[in-house]
């Protein structure tokens, strides 16, 4: 049973904690911040891009770095060796989200004396719930994993049932605002469960860039701004910058006051236990009259 776990992605960290095994974590990624106590753990990764820059500049930095065939993140190999993990958790779904799997595989093989490496790559909600079970199996608490996965799935299904039969607003989930990006993977499923219809994407498909003309042509009833990795305050600031754009002010959702900023970092960017919270949060925006009755 692993006793020393290093998690290189926030969703894995949150899964370990939700399983009641947070005390086994000995190292984390620089982005792991939930539950709050994990911030006291040593960070084994760091970013090569400036996340405080404007969205357009972050996008440019990412494209330049990937274009040069470089990783967006550094892995502190010395610290990883010092932490002596017996399990390392990472992901291989997104090159923009964490240290590359190849870099992690090489470091684990060379430095950790045979630690197990478990990589997560969820695309849909069922994959996320299965990852909860996979992590639980890896850390020796399979029963807790099955119980947690089932509880999370039941919460999302409860939202689906509560919004069933209601009018389904057409929703644009924006995973980036400059340039615009339509959200993907588990986001369309969350929108469907919350009683809406995603105007751009389908469950499991990756996010993709769109133009202002694309958004204007779709003219959704509701816009949910969820720039990847941004907290609510940052999203509010990003949206404020768009109010000066004529194409933005002409959108139906903007005119009717149905643009919602959400805490993407906590609720939508991370494929972990808090996606159940995300479904409930979305439903409260799309069908507040129903969700109010559920409270």
From TrEMBL:
It holds the Pfam family Peripla_BP_2. Residues 4-290 form the Fe/B12 periplasmic-binding domain. CDD domains: BtuF (cd01144). Gene3D superfamilies: Nitrogenase molybdenum iron protein domain (3.40.50.1980). InterPro entries: ABC_transptr_periplasmic_BD (IPR002491), Vitamin_B12-ABC_binding (IPR051030). This is Iron complex transport system substrate-binding protein.
């Amino acid at each position: 049973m692993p006793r020393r776990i290093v998690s290189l992605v926030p969703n894995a960290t949150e899964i370990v904690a939700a399983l009641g095994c947070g005390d086994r974590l000995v190292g984390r990624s620089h982005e792991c911040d939930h539950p709050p106590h994990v911030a006291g753990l040593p960070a084994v990764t760091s970013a090569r891009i400036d996340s405080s820059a404007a969205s357009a500049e972050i996008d440019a930095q990412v494209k330049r770095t990937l274009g040069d065939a470089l990783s967006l993140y550094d892995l502190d190999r010395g610290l990883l060796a010092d932490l002596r993990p017996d399990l390392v958790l990472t992901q291989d779904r997104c090159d923009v989200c964490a240290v590359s799997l190849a870099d992690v595989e090489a470091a684990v093989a060379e430095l950790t004396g045979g630690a197990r490496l478990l990589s997560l790559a969820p695309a849909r909600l069922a994959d996320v719930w299965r990852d909860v079970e996979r992590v639980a199996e890896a850390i020796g608490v399979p029963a807790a994993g099955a119980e947690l996965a089932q509880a999370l799935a039941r919460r999302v299904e409860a939202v689906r049932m509560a919004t069933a039969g209601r009018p389904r607003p057409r929703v644009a989930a924006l995973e980036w605002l400059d340039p615009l990006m339509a959200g993907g993977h588990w986001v369309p499923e969350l929108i469907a469960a919350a009683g809406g219809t995603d105007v751009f994407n389908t469950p499991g498909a990756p996010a993709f860039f769109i133009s202002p003309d694309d958004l204007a042509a779709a003219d959704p009833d509701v816009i949910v701004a969820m720039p990847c990795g941004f907290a609510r305050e940052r999203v509010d600031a990003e949206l404020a910058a768009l109010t000066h754009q004529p194409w933005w002010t002409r959108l139906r959702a903007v005119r009717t006051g149905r643009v919602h900023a959400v805490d993407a970092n906590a609720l939508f960017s991370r494929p972990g236990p808090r996606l159940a919270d995300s479904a409930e949060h979305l439903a409260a925006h799309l069908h507040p009259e129903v969700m109010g009755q559920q409270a």
